[in-house]
Write a structure and sequence with these properties.
By secondary structure, the chain is an all-alpha fold. The protein has 14 helices and no strands.
Length: about 270
Amino acid sequence: MTRISNADIELAQDGNPKALENLVRGIQDRVHKLALRMLADPNLAQDATQEILIRIVTKLSTFRGDSTFETWTYRVATNYLLTARKVIANDPGLSFQMFSDDLLNGLADDQNAAPEDHVMLNELRLRCTMAMLLCLDRDHRAAYVLGDVLEFEHVTAADVLEITPSTYRKRLSRARARVQDFTAKTCGLASPAAPCSCRKRLPAAMDMGRIGTSPSVDLVDAPHFSDIETQASKTQADLVTAKLQRATGPLASPKDYAAEVLRLVETRG
């Protein structure tokens, strides 16, 4: 998150238009990345990002500095992603067994596996690691995303979720165990013996329209697929899962929300 000074926050709270615009621009990428990792759908993430930014702007007067502005921002964002009716209605209710069955359906054999198209393989890898987290319920998903993907300190993550640190650690431990177990058993990047590999999965994913002919998420600064393969092969099994989940690049917001959000806030006011 772009550093936002207390002076900037105070000016924004006083209604300074430029300060408010700069504040929205300063937080929008982080909010979008959180929404994308929680929802695993670029379109839903964009809608959620806009709604969260509107909430932050309209609730800005309630920020009193009891926590850092970053923590407060993530608290507002996470609360929306856990409780908004629109978000809950679109949750697919996946289980790890359902996801495993889907991944293994239509795997190509070695002869028909995808060629070295690292752009599409990278999008598939990213979409798969994001969709995998949908198999966790929202509370455990939030704990995992904050702790193992965004690498928040446990005390800070607990503050964001408004639970005790001990409760957070237990929640994260359960989520981590489930994701690691699934990854080790299923993902060929994590284990050479696992049945699914990106090259075998890509033809079916494209045929089913799961990914298109161009990336649907921002992969500009994501690690190259071949680099991820190399890293995974040299990493201890219990660390591979976290590396795969974090290897996304910034997942920057696809548009500048400031003008639109401020216009909508004025309209709703």
